[in-house]
Amino acid sequence: MFNRLRSDIACIQSRDPAARGFWEVLTCYPGVHALILHRRAQWCWSHGLKWLARFISNLSRLLTGIEIHPAARIGSCVFFDHAMGVVVGETAEIGDGCTIYQGVTLGGTSLYKGVKRHPTLGRNVVVGAGAKVLGGFTVGDNAKIGSNAVVTKPVPAGATAVGNPARIIQAESDAKREETASKMGFSAYGVTQNDDPISQALRGLIDSASSQEEQIAMLWTALEKLSAVAKSSDCVPCEAERMPAFAAHQLNDVLGK
What we know:
By secondary structure, the chain is an alpha/beta fold. About 40% of the residues lie in helices and about 15% in strands. It folds into two domains: about 1-190, Hexapeptide repeat proteins (UDP N-Acetylglucosamine Acyltransferase, domain 1, 3 Solenoid); about 200-255. It has helices spanning about 1-15, 20-30, 30-45, 50-65, 175-185, 195-225, 240, 250-255; strands at about 65-70, 75, 80, 85-90, 95, 100, 105, 120, 125, 130-135, 140, 145, 150, 160, 165-170. The strands form three sheets. A six-stranded mixed β-sheet has the order 3-6-9-12-14-15.
């Protein structure tokens, strides 16, 4: 028991730059307290002491703000960072080395007893603040769940899920797209300008198209000046004059910019 506790505290010290010592983590981190109480509650649950297990779980919720069902399975070196408002359901499983931030729900969508209703997190999964992972599916090893994402389907190993409903971003195939999104200010662990990443991408395309339209108009103007000397009086009007302009403001109005 003490070896596991030391391991939990060591992993927190390695991941949290604000952790300044063993004693501080042990006494001041609610995630550690929640794990200690959950292990006592899980022991009671597995030995048939259901009421006592639920009582310890409820006491842990009152003391730490973290609600973990006694039947939930939690691996080693799991870090509940801040973690106020975290809810972990009865059939949820959390693998070794996972990091879970505040406001996360590992919930279920089924009302049937005796079935797998809550998600299984693989090893080293990171679940961002406010994310909701709902259903009896698996989130693969080293996957990431973005802040405020709502995940209702499996997430492959090494992938990232963002948005509501969550979109699955493969770590390899969409690496360039993620790099472009990051240049626009998008982060998987925060909401940028109160916006959705798809809307941000569309607005970026609109701005780019608008800029290109202006450049094309400038090129037409330059061509008209160059051809003005050779232009005859009965020449057909320049094609650029009949071309419709790109109405960027209309698309921006549709997107609510």
